[in-house]
Design a protein that fits this description.
mainly beta, 13-stranded parallel beta sheet, 13 strands, globular
Amino acid sequence: MAKISSEVDSQGINLIGKGTRITGDVASDGDIRIDGELNGNLDCSGRVVIGITGKVTGEVRCKDSEISGFQKGKLQIEQHLSLKSSSKVYGEISTGKLSIEPGALFSGSCKMGEQIKHDEPKELKKA
């Protein structure tokens, strides 16, 4: 008789396939790829990939992200955000590193790198 495990694989890759529409917030401990549509916030402790047919309207928080499709809303990427040439991104970006391929569309604001703390040096306050 086979033993059934109730443990969740936190390193699994989740997929929202093309033609699938989800309305509501999504949270994941693993990586997630979106080729369908998500209307809601996404909180992921791993990597988020929005494929060329993917469309996300809402806030995205994750470790790393690669966007080839559409995203509208706030992006909070801990380490690296890559906007591919087919991407269309509208909103506020906060990320450690950002790479944008020629042809990518980005409209909004971006904060990159270490955030300036309130106790910044006087030289920076004058700028």
